[in-house]
Each structure stands twice: as structure tokens, then as C-alpha cells.
Design goal:
Number of strands: 0
Shape: rod-shaped
Largest sheet: none
Strand content: under 5%
Radius of gyration: 51 Å
Structural class: mainly alpha
Helix content: over 70%
Distance between the termini: 173 Å
Number of helices: 1
Length: 120
């Protein structure tokens, strides 16, 4: 009977040790899990911040693109107006040059006629 009681006592002691070992391992795994969870949460936060920064950058880039496209259209219109004004100025210059040549020719004719009249 004593031997049986000793066996039961040893088995109970072994069972207690096994339970303690299991509880220790479970606690260790819980700590590892908590640490991993914390690391993943930090990584997710970092990725979220990076995503927000990229989104803001993309929005800013799109805003700048639209502004530049508008500027290009405005500059194109301004160029068309400047070219039209230049063409008009070129036509006016040619007209004025023609008028000046005509006036110069008349003046030279008048000078020759006056000189001829004075010589006669």
C-alpha cells in the first residue's frame, strides 16, 4: 500500500511538474505572441503612415499636373494672340514701308522738278 501511495505521490509530483512546465511554456509563448503582435502593429502603423504620405504626395502631384496643364493651355492661347498681333504688326510695317517709298519717290520727283525749273 505504501508503495502504491509513493507511486501516486510521485505521479502527482510529476504531474505538478509537467503542469508547471506547460504553464511556463504557455506563458513564454504568450509573451512571444504579444511581442510579435506589438511588432506587427508597429509595422502596420509605419505602413499606414507611409501610405498616407504617398497618398498626399499623389494628390499634390495631381494638383500640380492640373495646374501645369491649365498653364500650358493659357500659354498656348497667349502664344496664338501674340502671333496674331505679330502678323498684324508685320502687315502694318509693310504698309508703312510702301507708303514711305511712295512719299520718297514723290519727294525725289518734286526735288528734280524744282531743280529743273530752277535750271531753266
Amino acid at each position: 500500500l505504501e508503495q502504491e501511495e509513493n507511486k501516486v505521490l510521485r505521479a502527482s509530483l510529476e504531474l505538478t511538474q509537467v503542469r508547471q512546465e506547460i504553464e511556463r511554456r504557455l506563458a513564454q509563448k504568450d509573451e512571444e505572441f504579444a511581442s510579435t503582435k506589438k511588432n506587427f502593429a508597429k509595422a502596420i502603423d509605419g505602413m499606414q503612415m507611409e501610405l498616407e504620405a504617398e497618398t498626399k504626395g499623389k494628390v499634390e502631384a495631381l494638383r500640380m499636373k492640373k495646374k501645369l496643364e491649365t498653364d500650358v493651355v493659357d500659354l498656348g492661347v497667349a502664344l496664338e494672340h501674340a502671333n496674331a498681333a505679330n502678323s498684324e504688326s508685320q502687315r502694318n510695317i509693310k504698309r508703312i514701308q510702301t507708303t514711305i517709298r511712295e512719299i520718297q519717290a514723290k519727294y525725289e520727283d518734286e526735288v528734280r522738278a524744282k531743280a529743273a525749273a530752277q535750271d531753266s
